Amino acid sequence: MKIALSQINYHIGNFESNEKKVIDSIREAKKQNADLVIFAELAVSGYPPRDFLEFSDFINKCLESVSRIAAECRGIAAIIGSPSRNPEIKGKDLFNSAFFLSDGMITSVHHKSLLPNYDVFDEYRYFEPNIVYQTVDYQGKRLAITICEDLWNIGDDLLYRGNPMDELFKQNPDMIINIAASPFYYEQAKLRKEIYLQNVQKYRLPLFYVNHVGAQTELLFDGGSFVINSSGIMVDELDFFREDFRIFDLGEIERVNKQPERNEPSKIALIHDALVMGIKNYFTKFGFSKAILGLSGGIDSAVTLVLAVEALGTANVRSILLPSRYSSPHSVTDAKKLAQNLGSPYDIIQINDAVKSLNLTLEPLFRDLPEDIAEENIQARTRGVILMALSNKFGNILLNTSNKSEAAVGYGTLYGDMNGGLSVLGDVYKTEVFELAGYINREKEIIPENTIIKPPSAELRPGQKDSDSLPEYPVLDALLYQYIEHRKGPNELIAMGFDEAIVKRVLKMVNTNEYKRYQTPPILRVSPKAFGMGRRMPIVGKYLA
Amino acid sequence: MKIALSQINYHIGNFESNEKKVIDSIREAKKQNADLVIFAELAVSGYPPRDFLEFSDFINKCLESVSRIAAECRGIAAIIGSPSRNPEIKGKDLFNSAFFLSDGMITSVHHKSLLPNYDVFDEYRYFEPNIVYQTVDYQGKRLAITICEDLWNIGDDLLYRGNPMDELFKQNPDMIINIAASPFYYEQAKLRKEIYLQNVQKYRLPLFYVNHVGAQTELLFDGGSFVINSSGIMVDELDFFREDFRIFDLGEIERVNKQPERNEPSKIALIHDALVMGIKNYFTKFGFSKAILGLSGGIDSAVTLVLAVEALGTANVRSILLPSRYSSPHSVTDAKKLAQNLGSPYDIIQINDAVKSLNLTLEPLFRDLPEDIAEENIQARTRGVILMALSNKFGNILLNTSNKSEAAVGYGTLYGDMNGGLSVLGDVYKTEVFELAGYINREKEIIPENTIIKPPSAELRPGQKDSDSLPEYPVLDALLYQYIEHRKGPNELIAMGFDEAIVKRVLKMVNTNEYKRYQTPPILRVSPKAFGMGRRMPIVGKYLA
């Protein structure tokens, strides 16, 4: 039996485009004499469709799409993900389903049993868990069809009471198929392979896995679909971060007895590739091609610019240098040098006059009160107004350049440097931004050395340095990582060796600044715990605040 | 048996304050010879604690609080909500539990079976559903203890497969107790009473219901705890929108055979009271007392100001009038008149110079391109910068004045008039804002007549009216209501009689502006479907866009 894996970049709610890609893929598979072609979870709708699932009209569109795709399946079978309706009165209205299509029609429907509802996942919001298990017989083989999380309830800490594969296994299947929507973070591909390998080792069956690829706003799908044979050998992996299509012969893959060598990319290389894909897909799926950003001479905007240029092309990213009277001379020269290294367009706009005019406007109310954070924010917000004006006038999307460390402690001005349509580095700690800069410069100096070595500063008052009000970034980031990614409380953090005063101060900063993060742009998610849809916090909460 | 209902305004994560209120209430109940005092769901933590529940430290704090409260329960019993740990390896780590406290200790723990996971609810994100049922015997009576949603799987369209009260009923209880966290919307109190009455009619048992009161950022809890006797008579209701405490004698309530008369408040009166409570609690729980807002002379900012003054006091709300060259003369006079009617402080700041300076700053890049939305937004954003500067300088929280109709179609400037710490009217359609103004003026003219009768306008270009680019508000709001609150698709809307071209245009506006709503302040929720945590939409989605 020849089985094709089709790894596609879907677009949520873009039924026409999704369906065309699927049908093209079925035709290609047929041309190459495949017997079966496998698509991802909720392929027809794109993943995650979120509350579109509450629209009956949306479900109709999904099911109509599945019907038209089924009509293409003559002389070949296909497995494809779509929501389906629950005919029972009891329980939620929908299932998250895998449709088996053959002979030009839908021949069976298999529902997801384990519905992830943690971090970025909300599946129990929409779907009823499956409790009926049925394998499929096709061309003399028996297929156990599972959907993503269905294979993840394995190991020591079990999130669910049941295990759907245990049920399917009782029917003596010949292979496991898993269609998925498994979003990227820098350790996910590794973990995923371990989990699926555990399944193969447990059931001694070959496993075919098809994932999404491409970005849906903040959620990045890395692809990396694969085949493991029943001996536990990872026979082949599809590409990461791009669409791919490959056909495997079941007999041949079962005969493979040596694990092919693979270079595992580094964490920073993965983050780099994921972010470039994230920027690219956000723009194409939104129907935009051009970006704008404020280039300060600092490392965050420098790395953002390089990633944007890789994603959108040199000519499509316009940098605006917005020096003020507190900007050091090297800020402009470093920024110019980077834009010149990239050959990408830049302009310089002096903000002093506009800032002065705003300060004058406020003088009757500010009177002789001492300068403070209010004046600092006016500078950041003036830059924000100017960048948004250019975005509006020229139809460019403003890229936000804040990093995760800043977002965590609220070191940024709301409606100022926190503006943007998309946050590129909002899930990348400052220390990781430095690593990204090193990765970008791995062959030659693209980001000027001075941008990398100078002490980070917001340059909103004379001689300001980030370290005036924050712990040094290596300490801060280590602490934030334990608190945010690992949900360690103050006692645990102190026991780990962090200074008690710093722990208290930093946790308070994180929690009291929840109101700022509520209003930030969507953040490309590359870590196991990003700000945004995967981290849901009260705003007026009083815990550690 | 004498049973006390204690309806408390909790504060998420503020263990000290929550515990003190609970213990004070237990002491009061004891003084009044009550046998049992009932508190709300997740009382010790406040509701919803959201991802704080993922912190082991947070759960410890909840359980320590329950232990200290238990120590108070000598000569009296209490029922109180708290998260508890699931000792099993399989399943999620926590339960949403009701603790029965007596003899100075925890005598039993009862877990929630039905976990709401729709709209604003995320309970399956944290909790394992209960599958073990046990009544409690206390002073010769048998209590069936249930938690909120546990009693809601009744009627025609059943969301869950099981019904926990059916299980408990097998043990022949004498009464039903339901501890809840049931957030307000303008039809919720009515629906709630219907649902609980159906339970009483089904099981023929008296029912004691205790709800939260108070606001947790966007979620408003209206209180309205109640007692229904086994004949289905609503014996008493606790106050709405404020803390309350009452004691009932079981024998006496069972003898009531006539439904007490009650005045049901109107929808607009409910919304009014809910919003005032929402503003007040946001400020007190955040530790702020003073608000600022931009007062335009239009109806949205006028209604916002009145509500803020009711919540915070006349002297604590400062209005800023920010006329531009496109503002009509009546804008300033109407705004001044309102501030004067209220006796609340206001200032006038001319924005023309700052706008001119920003335009001049942009001239080298804008050149001779025609004026468009970019220039309009500069005005709105200049106002935003000025208001935020005042907020920063004087420690006032900026109130956002956008309404739901505008938020829906994206009629507002991001980082301009969409700024603010809290959106007061973001869940109130424009037509409802007019009704609120009528309600505010029910006894005398507070909001100037001219503010109410003039055609709505953003006043960002000469002679601009909202109706230039939007359908008339009664049509727009009716359409938005069907699309947002009832999830009707285009075909259904056209079948209902809405014009096809308007349907297409409005739905496209709603969906393409999701990116704006992603960055808006939290919105006080008064409808069954508010923007924010209860409506989760893809940003780059292509459905109806």
Overview of the structural elements:
2 copies of one chain form a homodimer. Chain A has 545 residues and is an alpha/beta fold. Chain A has 2 domains: 2-255, Carbon-nitrogen hydrolase (Nitrilase/N-carbamoyl-D-aminoacid amidohydrolase); 270-518, HUPs (Rossmann fold). In chain A, 39% of the residues lie in helices and 17% in strands. Chain A has 18 helices and 19 strands. In chain A, the strands form 4 sheets. The first copy, chain A, has a 6-stranded mixed beta sheet. The longest helix of chain A has 22 residues, at 373-394. Chain A is elongated and about 85 Å long. The termini of chain A are far apart. At the A-B interface, helix 2, helix 6, helix 9, helix 10 and helix 16 of A face helix 2, helix 6, helix 9, helix 10 and helix 16 of B.
Proportion of residues in helical segments of chain A: 25-40%
Q: For this entry, what is the oligomeric state of its chains?
A: homodimer
- Going by CATH, the homologous superfamily of the largest domain in chain A would be Carbon-nitrogen hydrolase
Biggest interface between protein chains, with counts per chain?
A: A-B, 99 and 99 residues
Give the structural class of chain A. alpha/beta
Mean pLDDT of chain A: 97
What profile does the largest beta sheet of chain A have? 6 strands, mixed
The backbone outline of chain A, from C-alpha atoms, is elongated
CATH class of the largest domain in chain A: Alpha Beta
DSSP strand (E) fraction of chain A? 15-25%
Total of helices of chain A: 18
Amino- and carboxy-terminal Cα gap of chain A = 60 Å
The radius of gyration computed from the alpha-carbon positions of chain A, rounded to a whole number of angstroms, is 26 Å
Uncertain spans of chain A: none
* Whole-number total of structural domains of chain A: 2
Count of β-strands of chain A:
19
* CATH fold group of the largest domain in chain A: Nitrilase/N-carbamoyl-D-aminoacid amidohydrolase
Q: Using the 3D structure, state the CATH architecture of the largest domain in chain A.
A: 4-Layer Sandwich
